[in-house]
Amino acid sequence: MRNLLLMSSSKYANTGYLVHSQDWLKQHFQTQIDAQQEILFISYAGVTTPGAEYTAKVAAALAGIGLRLRGIESYANARDAVTSAHGILVGGGNTFALLNELYRHGLIDLIKRQVQSGVPYAGWSAGANIAGLSIKTTNDMPIVQPPSFTALKLVNFQLNPHYIDQHPPGFHGETRAQRLAEFMELNPATAIIGLREGTALKVQQRMHLLGAHDGVYFRDGREHLIKAGQDCSFLLG
Prior knowledge:
The protein is α/β, with parallel strands linked by helices.
């Protein structure tokens, strides 16, 4: 029953905020748009932006596709917000802060049940990262310590949004691939999908890579290519 849209980023190249993903989001939430149902926006990752301000920014960016949002911060009880949601949209920011708030409000199992019952879920950056098994492959700093790194487990692999394999001249730190290789060394059977900016995963009964760029996945100590538009359902296990 799951219906997921897992996006790498809110911006792509020189396009405006969420512009590159509008068609994806419109298709993803088309049933809710047609029925004029509100989509729940979870703003917890936006550490430096107040929840209402974050919700207003996203709502303005998506108003042109008919998407109606209500921020979780506007509810007296966050659990009621999730259980009554017709669709769930999770914004980017700090993955550790986002997961910590989900645990603090007791929302992990509630979101999973909603998704399993068919409620569409979409997220970018941190909002995509938490859909995986854990947040151990995020790029973010651990500015807070969640009760666990275990995430929503909506898919059975790890995610690395904003994946990049460029190595600037004079830069002597580890590349993204080297960091992910460290995870593979300790978790050889767990796949990691690297999502380049401007790409997304669409997951229903099958899974496809959206966008014009190729992606990568890492497993068993090796890096593999995912072609743009490829059916990569084999990674669903």
